[in-house]
Amino acid sequence: MASDLRRRTAHGSAVHAAEFIVSSARLGELHECSALLRRTRMRAAEIVDEARTLLAEAERQGHPGRVRALREQLEQARRSYAKVLDAYVTICGKIADERQAIMRAQVEPDRRPGLSGAA
What we know:
By secondary structure, the chain is mainly alpha-helical. The protein has helices at residues 14-61, 64-107, and strands at residues 8-9, 12-13.
């Protein structure tokens, strides 16, 4: 016998409960991605700092060939850092969006049809 997904539960329909579970799981996955990207971003920042330090050292020592190579490496490190930062900001935005969706889903079942928010 098939289950009735439209039946009412104590806090709303079974469909709303299932949607909440899926949204919560998605939010958990986004948080895991965020943590990984946060660690990656921190390591990328360290690499940029290390590249900057090596470049400054080469400039002080007057090694023009090494300076050119390290300057390019520093620029590449900065570009990579920017990509990681963009990904991190994107994930943070998705987390905020998912939280908003969960909050809306929790508020909507509590609203009564025909009543405005001022009622």
